[in-house]
Amino acid sequence: MSVKTMPSTRFSEVLFATDFSEESDRALSYAKSIVRASGGELILVHVAQLPAVIALSGEVWVDDSVRINAEEEQTQEAAGALRAEGLKVRAFCPFGAVGQRVAQSAEIHHADLVVVGTHGRRGLNRVIFGSYTEETAGSLETPLLIIGPRVPLATQTAWKPTRILVPTSFFASDAALVAFACSLAKTHGASLDILTDTRDRANSQWLEFRKSVSKLVDLGGADELPLHTSHLPEPIAKSLIEAVIARATDLLVIGCENRKWLTLHEGTLQELLADVPCPILTFPTTTN
């Protein structure tokens, strides 16, 4: 795994993918707060299903253009309401598969953060965890902020993380993940805890890992990264959630390798998304 460039941590172009569900509204509270904090722009994207054209008996054709027009109007109305709140907003209503269109929109409109809610009416959780999980997540070169059903609404006018937790297994790709988390913490003045699931780490392994991190981000002359070695017993999701609660974490950062690792434990991601009480930020990586 490698990262082409270190993603921005200032989040001035925020793409919010919505299906207009209650869960999406929860995610919207974070998207708005992040845009207010950065003084940036909100890119509102609602992905409509492809128009269905149905042939009935007697060669009578029925299409759903009325539904499509209604979804487009709803998207523009939502954008208008956000502009009335003083936000700078662009709105788009593409057609097709949710994950593919969100990834394409993020690239086309140069978003530096994508925000989604889970368990939406039309399954926005599939952007990350559905049948095309790896295709979508792997194609995104943009950090992805996931707001689950246990995450409280963003109450701050300008939300930013204050306590960040990043799990790592000292894989080579995790150096970029930790470097990004360090940069994110520095940008927003947040504290950072690095949690490893390696029970008996070798000192040489840690030193080599830290050296890799320092090549990617300025550690500010710090002698040590804030590493907390803690074995993560089964069930993995429960251990991570307990760590989040114990540390009063308000942002959990994971990378694609972490997400694939978690997928190996049946139900782990579903449980994590359902019960973690803070947003999850996924870090984009690509395979050489």
Task: Please tell me the CATH architecture of the largest domain by its name.
Answer: 3-Layer(aba) Sandwich
Fourth-tier CATH superfamily name of the largest domain:
HUPs
Give the rounded overall mean pLDDT.
78
Uncertain stretches: 120-136
The CATH topology annotation of the largest domain reads as: Rossmann fold
Taken together, the total number of domains comes to 2
Question: What kind of oligomer do you see?
Answer: single chain
Global Rg: 20 Å
The tally of helices reads 10
Binned, the helix content reads: 25-40%
- Name the overall outline: elongated
Please characterize this protein's 3D structure.
This protein is an alpha/beta fold. It folds into two domains: 1-51 and 65-153, HUPs (Rossmann fold), CATH 3.40.50.620; 161-279, Rossmann fold (3-Layer(aba) Sandwich), CATH 3.40.50. It is 40% helix and 19% strand. It contains ten helices and twelve strands. The chain has helices spanning 22-38, 65-84, 98-108, 126-129, 133-139, 174-188, 203-216, 236-246, 256-263, 268-275; strands at residues 13-17, 41-45, 53-56, 60-63, 88-92, 113-117, 144-147, 163-168, 191-196, 227-229, 251-255, 280-283. The strands form two sheets. It has a ten-stranded mixed β-sheet, sandwiched between helices. Helix 6 links the parallel strand 8 and strand 9 (191-196). Helix 6 packs across helix 7 (203-216) and helix 8 packs parallel to helix 10 (268-275). The longest helix has 20 residues, at 65-84. It is elongated, with a radius of gyration of 20 Å. Residues 120-136 have low confidence and may be disordered.
